[in-house]
């Protein structure tokens, strides 16, 4: 599929109601003299240190996106609206118990990340039911 970034953004934000929540959303309110840390401090927002991004700890990467791909695999779409409606419907087709299993698996991944002291580890799908 050859879909532009703006279409993907619209599907995620407007149809799936996913919102990006991070410091990268803040700069609209910053002047040139301010930096993000100063701005957050003036708003009394605590900034927590966090490890580098890890797909092992992102449920959308290890659970949701593969499930959506599985549901949509092999299907052909007529236009962007068809893609949008099918992509929006796909998560609704995932049984609720699979979401519960995902979050139980997510906690196991946290413990694994701690055991590896934040270093990258190969995920083992055998122990995590999706």
Strand residue percentage: under 5%
The description of the largest β-sheet is: none
Question: Spans of 5+ residues with little confidence (pLDDT < 50)?
Answer: 21-28, 125-130
Overall tally of domains: 2
Distance between the termini: 26 Å
| Strand count | 0
Number of helices: 5
Helix/strand-derived category reads mainly alpha
- Shape from CA axes? extended
The overall average pLDDT, rounded, is 75
Portion in helices: 40-55%
Order of helices and strands: HHHHH
User: Radius of gyration from the CA trace?
Assistant: 18 Å
How would you characterize the overall build of this protein?
The longest helix has 20 residues, at 96-115. The protein contains 5 helices and no strands. Helix 3 (59-72) packs across helix 4. It starts with a helix and ends in a 15-residue tail after the last helix. It has 130 residues and is an all-alpha fold.
């Amino acid at each position: 599929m050859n879909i532009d970034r703006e279409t993907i953004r619209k599907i995620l934000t407007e149809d799936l109601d996913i919102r990006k929540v991070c410091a990268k959303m803040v700069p609209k309110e910053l002047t040139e003299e301010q930096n993000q840390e100063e701005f957050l401090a003036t708003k009394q927002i605590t900034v927590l240190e966090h490890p580098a991004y890890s797909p092992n700890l992102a449920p959308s990467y290890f659970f949701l996106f593969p499930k959506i791909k599985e549901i949509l695999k092999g299907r052909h779409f007529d236009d962007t609206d068809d893609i949008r409606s099918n992509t929006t419907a796909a998560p609704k087709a995932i049984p609720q118990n699979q979401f519960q299993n995902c979050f139980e698996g997510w906690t196991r991944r946290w413990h694994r990340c701690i055991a590896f002291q934040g270093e990258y580890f190969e995920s083992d799908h055998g122990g995590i039911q999706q």
